[in-house]
Amino acid sequence: MRKEKNYFFKVFALVVDNKLRLALMPIYFIFSSILDLISIGLIGSYIGFIVDKNFIDNEKFFLFLNFWSSIINVSNNIIAIGILLVAIFFIKAILSIFIHRQIIKFSHITQANLRHVLMNAYQNMKYSEYLKRDSSEYIAAVGTLVKNYGGGLTACIQFIGDLIITIVIAGLLIIVSGTYLLFLSVALILIIFLYKLFFLDNLDEYGKKLNFSYGQMYQSISEYFYGFKELKILNSFNSFEKKIMSSTKQIAKSDIRQSFVTTIPRFLLELILIIFITSIVTFATINNQDIELLLPTISIFAAASLRLVPIANQFTKYIGAFKYSEDSVNQLYYDLEKYSSSDLGHKQDIHKISDNFIEMDLCGVNFTYDKQKNYLLKNVNLKISKGSAIAISGPSGSGKTTILNLILGLINPEKGKILYNKEHLRFNIDRWRSQVAYIPQETFLINDSIRANIALGINSNEIDDKKIQECLEKVHLKDFVKNLKNGIETNVSERGLSISGGQRQRIAFARAFYFNRNIFILDEPTSSIDQATEAEIIDYLTELKGSKTIIIISHKLDSIKFCDYIYEIKDNSLKLKIK
Ligand SMILES: Nc1ncnc2c1ncn2[C@@H]1O[C@H](COP(=O)(O)OP(=O)(O)O)[C@@H](O)[C@H]1O
Ligand SMILES: [Mg+2]
Predict the structure, then answer these.
(1) How far is the CA of 286 from the centre of ligand 2 (A)?
(2) What are the pLDDT digits (tens) for 438-489?
């Protein structure tokens, strides 16, 4: 993974929206650190007060406390300082809760926005890019990576907040006693260094392992259920189970490690603190100093430590969280940078385009998936005019689907050109696609009603039901649907409702009609259905011939007899076989 940009930069760059809310955070933090400052100072003078009633007047460095006490004009009133202390801690508690809520809210809203932007970015992916990864990787990216990123983002914001508080408190401690602060800092830095050395360095490895394992787990689970029927009959769930178990174990291992590593510092810090305070006292006793005079200073340090120890503890957690989420942040940043094109805004609604297809030309098209190897397709020439029916045949693996992908504009030719109405297809892709229906071997159905499957991707309240009925009639599914208990609202994957291959195929046709497509591109539409249904589909296509442009792939010559032109792939090129 590329690492040229800083982690923080990437984390904040991935805040795709809501930047104003982010800008408000430092203001909260500054306000809250001022409250911390006052409360710690107050504790010092409170203790000083208990020891010596003239404490405030004597101590020059509690200037702001003098200021406070003069305001309430109770310079010798221990009760007043007590009340003030409680009040400030009360406000501090409320403010802390508020800030905490803001951070959590911000992180979650950002995750939601990021998921949206990510989905949009993936839409812009070239088809050939898309194919490079397994679909489970995309699921993991939108799901887990974003969640891990959210953890990193929360840590970043809290880190900045705690840093501000630490700097402010350190400022106070310098004023109170620079020597003590130096002593404490050296001890703390030492501890953090040792901790990092022994525990932290391999935490980013664990983050990487975690993401990898999540990807594997999702992949195995999706395969497990996708192939449920085959696996059940073969009774071979075994290797899938093993894979799922091994990835979940790795996930558990990484998570345990992370939780363990991040809880250690608290104990170390407490230890440092107690060593620090006893050292001061011991040192003062040895040097015959008056401990009573030291008491306010010690109490300020103790109060500051009370505040700083959890923060220092948090810091190590933050570093852990940064490392842990680094891999996710890098992957997300990489994907967004690569795939979110700036023209996202201009993305037009393809359904609103109306264009008139006249002809498509493939002129001397060469294509290869693997640049090291020979061309899969060489010098392919093909002319498709409006209303014609064209078939492409050839043995399996000869490149039939590849030609369709070229025609669909999903992949681009290496050499030669594809023209749509005499213009480059690449620049007219939306106009072309707005007219095309693609009907593959296996119709893509979603877990929803017949209605939603026909008007695929249209919001339920925007579906034109009259048109749905017309489409059902055109594809001869009207009676079938009428006899279902829930009619067009029947879920296609409902138990008891078995939709046959032919019916699936006809839903695909109905979909094409619903979207007013007049160019039908079919990739072996009859290869997974029985002969009777095949004959029915062929009859149906023959019926459509003339009114629709049809491009069909099949290796069964019988099923493409109805076409005007039949081409065959031979020696990596296209030859006209029958006219
Ligand atoms: N995304 C891909 N990446 C690399 N090779 C591919 C890809 N898709 C198909 N191929 C290869 O290209 C050849 C033609 O594939 P395809 O067009 O699907 O054949 P057909 O549809 O005629 O069966 C096959 O050898 C196949 O392995
Ligand atoms: Mg194929």
Answers:
(1) 89
(2) 988 888 888 889 999 999 988 899 999 999 999 999 888 899 899 888 889 9
Q: Is residue 432 over pLDDT 70? A: yes
Nearest alpha carbon to residue 513 among 457, 437, 458, 456:
437
Topology of the domain comprising 359-577: Rossmann fold (3.40.50)
Tokens representing 399 are 């490149």
The CATH classification number of 7-340 equals 1.20.1560.10
φ, ψ for residue 294, nearest 5 deg: -80, -20
What is the C-alpha to C-alpha distance for residues 161 and 26, in angstroms, rounded to an integer?
Answer: 7
CA dist., res. 501 & res. 441, Å (int): 9
Question: How many Å lie between the centroid of ligand 1 and the Cα of residue 526?
Answer: 19
397 lines ligand 1 (CB under 6 A): yes
Domain range annotation of the chain = 7-340, 359-577
Three-state DSSP state, 386: coil
User: What digits encode the pLDDT tens for the residues 353-397?
Assistant: 778 899 999 999 999 988 878 889 999 999 999 999 999 999 889
Q: Is 399 in the pocket of ligand 1 (CB under 6 A)?
A: yes
Q: Rounded to whole angstroms, how far apart are CA atoms 206 and 210?
A: 6
pLDDT mean across residues, the chain: 84
Q: Report whether 382 contacts 400 (CB < 8 A).
A: no
DSSP-derived secondary structure letter, 413: -
- Residue 290: the pLDDT is 78
pLDDT of residue 495: 57
Q: Is 396 in the pocket of ligand 1 (CB under 6 A)?
A: yes
What pTM, to 2 d.p., does this model score?
0.74
CB 35, CB 88: distance < 8 Å: yes
Residue of the CA atom closest to atom 16 of ligand 1: 399
Which atom of ligand 1 is nearest the CA belonging to 128? 1
Indicate if the pLDDT at residue 435 is higher than 70.
yes
Q: Do domains 7-340 and 359-577 have the same CATH topology?
A: no
CA distance between the termini of the chain: 54
Model confidence at 1: pLDDT above 60: no
What is the pLDDT, as a whole number, of residue 472? 93
Please indicate whether residue 398, judged by its CB atom, sits closer than 6 Å to ligand 1.
yes
Å from CA of 555 to ligand 2 middle: 10
Rounded Cα gap, residues 547 and 543, in angstroms: 9
